[in-house]
Specification:
The complex is a heterodimer of chains A (786) and B (154). Chain A is of the alpha+beta class and 786 residues long. Chain A contains 18 helices and 28 strands. Chain A folds into 3 domains: 194 residues, Aldehyde Oxidoreductase, domain 3; 230 residues, Aldehyde Oxidoreductase, domain 4 (2-Layer Sandwich); 146 residues, Aldehyde oxidase/xanthine dehydrogenase, molybdopterin binding domain (Aldehyde Oxidoreductase, domain 4, 2-Layer Sandwich). In chain A, the strands form 7 sheets. Chain A has a 7-stranded mixed sheet, sandwiched between helices. In chain A, β9 and β10 form a beta hairpin. In chain A, α16 crosses α17. Chain A is globular. The termini of chain A are far apart. Helices cover 34% and strands 15% of the residues of chain B. In chain B, α2 crosses α5. With 154 residues, chain B is an alpha+beta fold. Chain B contains 5 helices and 5 strands. Chain B folds into 2 domains: 74 residues, Beta-grasp domain (Ubiquitin-like (UB roll), Roll); 69 residues, DNA polymerase, domain 1 (Orthogonal Bundle), CATH 1.10.150. In chain B, strands 2-1-5-3-4 form a 5-stranded mixed sheet, with helices on one face. Classes of the chains: A alpha+beta (786), B alpha+beta (154). Chains A and B meet through α1 and α16 of A and α2, α3, α4 and α5 of B.
């Protein structure tokens, strides 16, 4: 019998994508569908003096125009996470209106929506809407936003802070330990703002059916049920059972398609007003201006060491931008997804992090691939490499000295950190050892020394990361401010013929769930993969779900499916026992059939399935059917880890960084499909490389974005990166049935500091100790001249 | 304006607004939605098609500019159910994840190999410079094109 777990099974979703037959939201056309365009503010901060739609309303093909005056969505879109001030004050949470009323708070904020017969006519008419503004001073830097006299984003409060939060040991204790430390390494830098840039722009179609009094929202989202919940319960106050949210193929998310956006709610509202379907698809500049961004932390950190190089204390203060409004997960990102990873893979006994999270006159910042964990890893891995240089130690050696010793979470307990979490299982030495071996570290150091003699600037950078994903235990996150549970739903319906439909609340937007989920379902049931179908992305088909982000699909969503499979096999055994006239405990299930132990008497899964639906000769009192749905709420996060090593050569004339090699040894627990895990790592690594070398969202002093197109915002292209050299160690997760940890974000979390460490290493003999990301030729060249 | 062109071997004639891009014409008028629009500045390459045998970005070409031309889109690459060797190689080598950039990647790959059947890794990477992929890190796309080249040259 063919088994699938652990095999690089080719993806079943690929055929439609390769033939151009994918079904992305913008590909959908509904009868009578209208199109829309937004009138967006060119100011970052302004009073709206007047809006005149007279001319626009008279334009060709215009169906309707709405502004905030028309009363759309009285409540605005909600925030899904509450992080209060450390002094107990409640998080400051502004209303996020669907259309701006009175005041503008970031460039690109929508002032009006124009509905017309075609997209072109909607855009033409939007040009005719006359809005008069009175421009006001803006603040876009999170640190400057907290200075006295800074322009205020919201007038409701005394300053721009949304919250001021801390985690870890007592600050005074950490400060005292730093004073006593043998050596203290200090860093001040910006973990700059980046744009997720899924290549498919956001796209929505809302369709209100007057006869059924029902809405259908087609949306490019990572979590259709969550969108339905937020839309119905908060943004519009419409009945949840009357709304169907559909997200078929989605062209990448990387976090930016988790959130409930104003446009989704507004289109849903408009559709009922006009009694026709309405579509909106973002253009690329709108995407830059309105999709939630990532990162944007200003960091000041000190790490203390004893004379043997053991870390004794770590103290950090950060200003983390929230943007103008609180996006769905925004407050969780620089706090519970960030501060809780400050232990890293090290035995640091004292840790304190303080986060001030101000509003800024920019678009919102929220989870972007890795979400808070890349920022934590960047800090830890940069500061340790900097410390190694200062203490004249090898950066690998300093890491080995400080690693948490191996533990499997079964025979040895999980590792209790100073920052709330308990790691599940890990072997951090093993990944670094393997990574160094893959690179040929010692030989490289010799090569580097030789190269320097010849004026060649070669550098190597190490990063040993851990991340917390598989989010998350509902009670834990609830205590930390989440306003939702973070379980997942897995529904397995065995059809009378023994074919299996699986309905999952997880959502695939590139991860290959249709293949991977079918692999383990087929194995667990002992049937062929072709007999298993995976359904996702439609709230009318899937009972409920929390969607895909935080590398949770397999560890949480997969576990929910396993729970339902267990129930199916348990019920199936009752039916099989009845048919075989044996006791349940005398049956074995393997290769798709129940067999009476020690005999050749057996009944197949297909026959049991048919019996369940044709229950003529059937166990007394047992319900017909073979169909179970389960909720799985994890008992802990999962903790993938790894070692990433970059090799760069810096052009001494131009400062251009050439990434020559990238080695990634990751441990994501058990692996269902190595091909897909490798693919996730490759892509993640290159996204992290993008932040290190190329990408940055820049707002000028007036809050204008100067990087709002692909002509201005540099993302990695094929010739910017080498092949990624990957390998794995396997430390199974001890607390979920598949032993999986998650692979979606690991690449991005580990890679950024490895690259910057390599660049600094290449220039270290010139006295360079740090370079602000992105490490552009200009910045490198300047650092070399100083 | 009245235009006529051959697309994937079939001839079409339509009266279009002069401002409509080729990408919009393919998607909106002809329902050939495999050509994707990821930007409007030729930056992302998701809209790459072949015009008279050469790769071109359909988002910044007007439909009227292509009047009288032969156009191939992703929908015209497979031979019925049999995928083009480049499509097959993408599947075999996991050269796609979310699938959105994929049509443009396949069309660009075909152009690269047409002009340089033995393209080196460096030449393939250079040839892909006009196409963004945010999922794969390009690793498996490059591998796919290398494998397709082997098959097509065999």
């Amino acid at each position: 019998m063919e088994t699938y777990i652990g095999q690089s099974v080719k993806r079943r979703e690929d055929d439609r994508f390769l033939k151009g037959a994918g079904k992305y939201t913008d590909d959908i056309k509904l009868p009578g569908m209208t199109h829309s365009a937004f009138v967006r503010s060119p100011y970052a901060h302004a009073k709206i003096l007047s809006i005149d739609t007279t001319q626009a309303k008279a334009a060709e093909g215009v169906v309707a125009i709405y502004t905030a005056e028309d009363g759309c969505g009285a409540y605005g879109v909600p925030c899904g996470w509450q992080v209060d001030f450390k002094n107990g004050e409640t998080m400051r949470e502004p209303q996020h209106p669907l259309l701006a009323k009175d005041k503008i708070k970031h460039v690109g904020e929508a002032v009006a929506i124009v509905i017309a017969e075609t997209q072109e006519l909607a855009r033409d008419a939007a040009e005719l809407v006359e809005v008069k503004y009175e421009g006001l001073p803006a603040v876009t830097c999170p640190k400057k936003a907290m200075e006295p006299g800074a322009p205020k984003v919201h007038d409701d409060w005394g300053d721009n802070a949304s919250f001021d939060w801390c985690i870890g040991n007592d600050r005074a204790e950490v400060e005292a330990a730093l004073e006593q430390a043998h050596h203290v390494t200090e860093m001040t830098y910006k973990n700059h703002r980046v744009a997720p840039n899924a290549i498919e722009p956001r796209s929505y179609i809302a369709d209100y059916d007057v006869n059924g009094d029902k809405w259908t929202l087609y949306t490019s989202t990572q979590n259709p049920h969550l969108i339905r919940l937020l839309l119905c319960a908060f943004a519009l106050g419409i009945p949840e059972h009357k709304v169907r949210v559909v997200s078929y193929d989605v062209g990448g998310g990387f976090g930016s398609k988790i959130y409930h956006y104003t446009e989704e709610a507004l289109l849903t509202w408009v559709s009922k007003e006009i009694g026709r379907p309405v579509k909106w698809t973002s253009d690329r500049t709108e995407a830059f201006l309105t999709d939630a961004h990532g990162r944007d932390h200003i960091v000041h950190s000190k790490m203390g060491f004893d004379q043997d190089g053991k870390i004794v204390a770590h103290l950090t203060d950060e200003y983390c931008a929230m943007g103008a409004y609180l996006s769905t997960f925004a407050p969780a990102v620089p706090t519970y997804l960030h501060g809780t990873l400050f232990q890293g893979v090290y035995t640091t006994p004292l840790i304190h992090l303080n986060v001030v999270a101000p509003f800024t006159h920019t678009v919102a910042v929220d989870a972007y691939r890795g979400a808070g964990r890349p920022e934590a890893t960047y800090l830890l891995e940069r500061i340790i490499s900097k410390a190694a240089k200062e203490m004249d130690m090898d950066p690998a050696e300093l890491r080995f000295k400080n690693f948490i010793p191996p533990f499997d979470g079964v025979n040895e307990p999980g590792y209790q950190t100073q920052v709330a979490l308990q790691y599940d299982s890990g072997n951090y030495e093993a990944v670094l050892k393997r990574g160094l071996e893959m690179l040929g570290y010692e030989d490289f150091r010799k090569e580097q020394a030789e190269a320097r003699k010849n004026g060649k600037l070669l550098g190597v950078g190490i990063s040993t990361y851990i991340e917390g994903c598989g989010i998350a235990p509902s009670a834990v996150v609830g205590a930390l401010g989440a306003r939702a549970g973070l379980y997942e739903v897995g529904h397995v319906r065995v059809q009378p013929t023994g074919k299996v439909s699986v309905f999952t609340g997880a959502h695939s937007h590139g991860q290959g769930h249709e293949t991977v989920f079918a692999q383990f379902v087929a194995d667990k049931l002992g049937i062929a993969m072709d007999d298993v179908d995976i359904v996702h992305g439609d709230t009318d088909q899937v009972a409920f779900g929390m969607g895909t982000y935080g590398s949770r699909s397999l560890s949480v969503g997969g576990s929910a499916i396993i729970k339902s499979i267990d129930k199916i096999l348990e019920k199936g055994a009752k039916i099989a026992a009845h048919k075989l006239e044996a006791a349940e405990e005398d049956l074995d299930y393997a290769e798709g059939k129940w067999t009476v132990k020690g005999t050749d008497k057996s009944i197949s899964f297909g026959d049991v399935s048919l019996t369940a639906y044709v229950p003529h000769d059937y166990p007394e009192g047992l319900e017909p059917g073979l169909d179970f749905s389960s909720f799985y709420d994890p008992t802990n996060f999962t903790y993938p880890f790894g070692a990433h090593i970059a090799v760069v050569e810096v052009d001494s004339d131009t400062g251009k960084v050439n990434l020559q090699r990238f080695v990634a040894c990751d441990d994501v627990g058990n692996v269902m499909n190595p091909m897909i895990v490798d693919g996730q790592i490759h892509g993640g690594v290159v996204q992290g490389v993008g932040q290190a070398l190329l990408e940055e969202v820049v707002y000028d002093g007036e809050g204008q974005m100067t990087t709002g197109s692909y002509m201005d915002y540099a993302m990695p292209r094929a010739d910017d990166v080498p092949m990624i050299e990957t390998d794995r160690t396997t430390t199974p997760c001890p607390h979920n049935p598949l032993g999986v940890k998650g692979a979606g974000e690991a690449g991005t979390i580990g890679s950024t500091p490895a690259v910057v460490n390599a660049v600094v290493d290449a220039l270290s003999h010139l006295g360079v100790t740090d370079i602000q990301m992105p490490v552009t030729p200009q910045r490198v060249w300047r650092a070399m001249q100083n | 304006m009245q235009i006529s062109m051959t697309i994937n071997g079939k001839t079409y004639a339509h009266d279009v607004e002069p401002r409509i891009s080729l990408a919009q014409y393919l998607r909106e008028t002809l329902n050939l939605t495999g050509t994707h629009i990821g930007c409007d500045t030729s930056g992302c390459g998701s809209c790459t098609v072949h015009v008279d045998g050469a790769a071109a970005k359909a988002c910044t070409l007007l439909a009227v500019q292509v009047d009288g031309s032969e156009v191939t889109t992703i929908e015209g690459m497979a031979n019925g159910n049999e995928m083009h060797p480049i499509q097959a190689a993408f599947k075999e080598n996991h050269g796609l994840q979310c699938g959105f950039c994929t049509p443009g990647m396949v069309m660009t790959a075909a152009d690269i190999l047409k002009n340089n059947p033995n393209a080196s890794e460096e030449e393939i990477r250079h040839g892909l410079e006009g196409n963004f992929c945010r999922c794969t890190g390009y690793h498996n796309i490059v591998k796919s094109i290398q494998h397709a080249a082997e098959k097509m040259n065999a």
